[in-house]
Request: fold
Amino acid sequence: MSSYELREHKVKHLSKIPNFTYEVQLPVREYDGTPNGQDRKPVLMLHGRSVPALAGCDLAPVPGGNPNRYSWAQELAQAGFDVFIMDLQGSGRSPRPGVMDDPYNTNPAQQQPVLVDHTIPAPGSPSYKSELGNSESEWAELASVVTFIKSKVGPGKRIRFIGWSA
Reply:
């Protein structure tokens, strides 16, 4: 059984979220399970809409249990892969556009049952009228992370991709 090394990275990215252009640092977790002297076999893991990547791919081990029992990423690293895990902006450990802090930018249909009397006094109109992410902005984030991974493992390496969604 191989061992692996945990590394945390910050990947520079120029955000393409509609109506925002700013540089962000995307957090990327890496478990390098490549045995010494062997070619790296990179894997990139990405979440779907409802569950961030760490919760879906790298849950913390349970005390007293198998330390890798709930970590798909760590299992792959132990099998000799170099595993990278990323979250898209607004999810998990990734930066959130400031407009996400305004409760009125919540889906208007969810304001009454979820936020009224807890966070806001009454439903209201969103102050931000655009999407907080779309396929173009998410592809751009993915491209930045892929470029980063290739800078670490070599430009000609094939990157295996795992997408997971609840």
Notes: Helices lie at 53-57, 72-78, 108-115, 135-153. The longest helix spans residues 135-153. Strands lie at 5-14, 23-32, 42-47, 82-86, 160-164. The mean pLDDT is 86.
